[in-house]
Write a structure and sequence with these properties.
Elements: H1 6-9, H2 22-33, E1 40-44, H3 51-63, H4 78-85, E2 91-95, H5 102-113, E3 123-128, H6 135-146, E4 152-158, H7 166-169, E5 173-176, H8 182-195, E6 199-200, H9 202-212, H10 216-229, E7 233-234, H11 236-243, H12 250-259, H13 263-275, H14 280-299, H15 311-323, H16 326-344, H17 349-361, H18 369-387, H19 401-404, H20 485-511, E8 515-520, E9 523-528, H21 533-541, H22 543-557, E10 562-567, H23 585-588, H24 599-607
Helix pairs in contact: 3-4, 5-6, 8-9, 9-10, 9-11, 10-11, 12-13, 13-17, 14-15, 14-16, 16-17, 20-22
This protein binds zinc ion (ZN).
């Protein structure tokens, strides 16, 4: 007997055997019992969910002389058997993707006009991917649908029903086929595996169900593929190998690298995935699913009701969500989405994945490959030197290639200007920004990796959290020589832009209210309009953000710069850099985590853009 794909071999032949679409098949069986089948059906739904299969069963019940009382075909008569074998003249299946022209539909109409195969037979036209019909073809079809001959029935199947003209949709009775739930798929796969005498383990079937994403056809295809590769064995490892999946701990490794700003760990992950032959594109797609799950755990307390995932997957998301900041999760979704698009464009897979993971592990890292390369080199260099046991030498500020040109090149290592009062001259270098939640295994290990570019400098108004004087102080940058207000104003637009990118829209919104006002030694003084005292308070208290601004400014000015805020005297600046102030105060007052508790900020994080006050017309 010729080999038959599982999907064909087990294709349901009765309404009751169609998996996971009871809302459709029960209704159809009732219509059969009542003799109320209509001449045109529209079956909408994802691929592999049973649309064509159900259409064929309709053809059977229309032609079966021995219908059951339950509205099911007998599957024994000549007509039923012919339809099962695909040799019936009463079922005409057309793929609209390749028969989308008006001539094709005219042919159908001519065919409709011919007499059915035997007296009293009903002919069923199954038009797959019906949304692919050209407009002219759809119009021609509409004429037939408006006055169908007594013996002609149509089933239009489509994955994209909204693309069909309204006139056609309104002529047909519509049924929506749903993606098949994981539990249903797993049970069905177990049943089929038993009949095929596969040795199937639950973890293997669960993995297949996840990756079939609601499609029965895909699930059976995967089952077949894994069983063929494993000699009938279907377990988690076999599925992982057959599909080129990343090992199950890869996603938590990625999450940890992001939470701990562990760039070497992220690169090691990319290397091990490549070495294991994982399908990198699938890894990126699965990572997006993973971070989407983590994202949802924050906003959907009853996650079990809205996602179709096994309980252990959901509890895994919840555990990871505790260690990651909401901003990190959103950024991961954004960066991985871009990476996936780049992979679809055929860019070099490993490079794309490495860059994406690096961007995630080092948020301040520019996406500019040149500066990435130089940063990596510096990192490797330092790690190597530390391995040799010597303290890292003072780092000459490594300007970023693009931006350095805008600023006067620094004199080599000028003596630091007198440290402004209250500001540590050589602040603690740290590779990690302060984290609200961190999985730091060993805090004392922090100084072993000095900052890549600039020290993490708290603003003057707030005392630094910890002050291990001397530890790694040699790695600090010297203040930029001859720093003046003009230099700060030159880099100001770039600074604001990088704050937007690196610190999130909420902080950017606050920060845009500032203007550079003065320079004292290596400290830039930013003025916040006196009309915005709340902004001033927020900025002055946000020590982590002060460090971010200092770091960005230091990299743009090629030397260690700190930042301090003071109230200005004037109105809100109406200049281009200070466009309307955006966040309402009540949002800023929100307690708890500012991003997760502020829907505006969340929306801004997700979609970008800005909030325009309602009083500002014509924008
Ligand atoms: Zn029959």
């Amino acid at each position: 007997m010729a080999y038959q794909a599982l999907y064909r071999k087990y294709r349901p032949q009765r309404f009751g055997d169609v998996i996971g679409q009871d809302h459709v098949t029960l209704t159809l069986a009732r219509e059969v019992q009542q003799g109320r089948l209509v001449h045109a059906y529209l079956f909408a739904g994802p691929r592999g969910t049973g649309k064509t299969t159900t259409a064929r069963i309709i053809a059977k019940v229309l032609n079966c002389p021995d219908l059951g009382p339950d509205g099911e075909p007998c599957n024994l008569c000549a007509s039923c058997l012919a339809i099962t074998e695909g040799s019936s003249l009463d079922v005409i299946e057309l793929d609209a993707a390749s028969h989308n022209k008006v001539e094709d539909v005219r042919e159908i109409r001519a065919n409709v006009g011919t007499v059915a195969s035997t007296g009293g037979a009903h002919r069923v036209y199954i038009l797959d991917e019906a949304h692919m019909l050209s407009r002219a073809a759809a119009n021609a079809l509409l004429k037939t649908l408006e006055e169908p001959p007594e013996h002609a029935f149509f089933v239009l199947a489509t994955t994209e029903p909204y693309k069909l003209p309204d006139t056609i949709r309104s002529r047909a009775q519509r049924f929506d086929f749903r993606p098949i739930g994981a539990e249903t798929l797993i049970a069905y796969l177990g049943d089929i595996a038993g009949r095929e005498r596969y040795q199937a383990a639950p973890d293997g079937l669960a993995l297949i169900a996840r990756h079939a994403r609601g499609s029965l056809r895909d699930a059976l295809g995967l089952l077949e593929q894994v069983a063929a590769l494993g000699g009938g064995k279907v377990d988690g490892r076999g599925v992982t190998r057959a599909l080129g999946l990343a090992p199950s701990d890869a996603f938590s490794r990625l999450a940890r690298a992001i939470a701990e700003h562990d760039a070497p760990g992220a690169l090691a992950l990319a290397a091990s995935l490549a070495a294991e032959g994982a399908d990198l594109r699938r890894f990126v797609a699965d990572s997006i699913e993973f971070f989407r799950g983590i994202f949802l755990t924050r906003y959907a307390p009853k996650l079990e009701e809205i996602v179709d995932e096994p309980a252990d997957v959901i509890s895994g998301w919840r555990a990871e969500a505790k260690a990651l900041e909401p901003g990190d999760v959103l950024r991961a979704l954004e960066v991985l989405g871009e990476a996936l698009a780049a992979l679809r464009d055929g860019r070099e897979e490993r490079l794309v994945v490495e860059l994406a993971l690096l961007r995630l592990a080092r948020p301040e890292t520019s996406i500019d490959p040149a500066s990435l390369g130089s940063r990596l080199e510096r990192l490797e260099d330092r790690v190597r030197r530390m391995g040799e046991g010597s303290a890292p030498p003072p780092v000459v500020p490594a300007p970023e290639p693009r931006r350095a040109a805008r600023v006067t090149a620094p004199e080599p290592a000028a003596a630091p200007a007198a440290a402004p009062t209250g500001v540590p001259a050589a602040p603690e270098p740290s590779v990690k920004a302060p984290r609200r939640t961190a999985r730091k295994a060993a805090p004392e290990a922090a100084p072993s990796l000095p900052a890549l570019d600039t020290p993490d400098t708290p603003p003057a108004e707030t005392p630094p959290a910890a002050e291990p004087s001397g530890a790694g102080a040699g790695a600090a940058l010297a203040p930029p020589p001859g720093l003046d207000l003009a230099a700060v104003e030159t880099i100001w637009p770039a600074l604001v832009e990088r704050v937007r990118r690196d610190a999130g829209p909420r902080r950017h919104a606050l920060f845009r209210a500032c203007r550079p006002a003065a320079v004292e030694g290596s400290r830039m003084i930013l003025e916040v309009p006196a009309t915005l005292p709340f902004h001033l308070a927020q900025l002055a208290e946000d020590r982590e953000f002060g460090g971010i601004v200092g770091r960005i400014a230091s990299s743009l000015l090629c030397g260690a710069v700190t930042v301090a805020y003071r109230p200005g005297d004037g109105e809100e600046d109406s200049g281009p850099a200070a466009t309307p102030m955006v966040i309402p105060d009540k949002d800023l007052l929100a307690e708890g985590d500012p991003v997760s508790s502020d829907p505006t900020a969340v929306a801004l994080e997700m979609f970008g853009g800005e909030v325009v006050p309602p009083t500002s017309p014509g924008r």
